[in-house]
Specification:
Number of helices: 17
CATH topology of the largest domain: Leucine-rich Repeat Variant
Helix content: over 70%
CATH superfamily of the largest domain: Leucine-rich Repeat Variant
Strand content: under 5%
CATH architecture of the largest domain: Alpha Horseshoe
Radius of gyration: 31 Å
Shape: elongated
């Protein structure tokens, strides 16, 4: 019996070794390799996390815009505009010190680098420095319609009424996007000189222009667009527009509520009360409640 067991052992040994090798291979493939991958990912995250901690300055981004490749340049302009949008970190002082250089690059990008020009317009609007107004007014004549739209937004953001005449011109543009942004910016500027022109666009061929005109007028305590404001706060009316996303409807209703709250119009106040009690969106109901206060 013992002899038989001894004779069988040499035959079984290769199988045992082969089995062990397979187990080791399986362990390596399904344990060590994933750990190596995870380790590499962690290393990359830590590496780029440390790089992210070394944030670039305004001057750094301006250097990249001047000297980088085409893709690096517009990305640097994009990051600069985001830098000035961060309320937790104050880059405005540094940006104001470098405003002459920003304006120089902005001027040099005319008709050659529309993406850079758009993001720099956004940066100038966020900086809110009146020294940028002449350059932005000039850029409302650009060939690129998106640059014009972003420049108009920037002029509204800065809030200098010196921009009113050019915005009134753009309110009659053939481009509905330019008309829409002009109506919005005129409402932000709150210049009474714009009231007659905005009243003339309450029945614009573009509904977005009409909506923004009504809101702009309400901001100036003009109730000419009250009927439109009522529609903008009517879920049934908005639900009849299949191309509007739920987020768009929410934003439109919120803006209409805020604008209507400035007017002492019983029909608008009544609609806001209805919204505060029955609208399906809790954030819209809350906005209505705040407006009633």
């Amino acid at each position: 019996m013992n002899t038989n067991m001894t004779e069988e052992n040499p035959d079984q040994q290769p199988e045992d070794n082969e089995g062990k090798e397979k187990k080791i291979l399986i362990i390596f493939r399904f344990v060590f390799v994933p750990l190596m991958v995870v380790g590499a990912v962690v290393f990359i995250i830590v590496l780029f996390g440390n790089l992210a901690l070394k944030e670039k300055s305004v001057k750094d981004y301006l250097y990249d815009i001047r000297s980088g490749s085409k893709s690096e340049r517009w990305q640097a302009a994009y990051h600069l505009s985001n830098l000035l949008a961060n309320p937790k970190k104050n880059y405005e002082e540094e940006a104001r010190k470098n405003l002459p250089e920003i304006l120089m690059i902005y001027h040099q990008s005319k008709n050659s680098d529309p993406e850079i020009r758009r993001y720099l317009a956004l940066a100038l609007g966020r900086l809110k420095d009146p020294r940028a107004v002449p350059a932005l007014i000039e850029s409302t004549q650009d060939q690129d319609s998106q640059t014009v739209i972003w420049s108009i937004w920037a002029l509204g953001s800065i809030g200098d009424k010196a921009a009113t005449p050019v915005l009134l011109e753009d309110l009659n543009s053939q481009d509905s996007g330019i008309r829409t942004m002009s109506a919005y910016a005129l409402g932000v500027l709150n210049d009474p000189k714009a009231i007659p022109a905005l009243q003339g666009h309450l029945d614009d061929s573009s509904v977005e222009v009409s909506w923004n005109s009504a809101i702009a007028l309400a901001r100036m305590n003009d109730a000419s667009g009250s009927d439109l404001l009522l529609k903008m706060m009517d879920r049934n009316y908005l639900n009849g527009m299949p191309n509007m996303s739920p987020e768009n409807k929410k934003e439109l209703m919120t803006n209409a509520i805020k604008a209507s709250a400035k007017l002492n119009e019983p029909k608008l106040q009544e609609q806001i009360k209805v919204i505060s009690k029955s609208d399906p969106d809790p954030s819209v109901r809350n906005e209505a409640l705040q407006a009633l206060k």
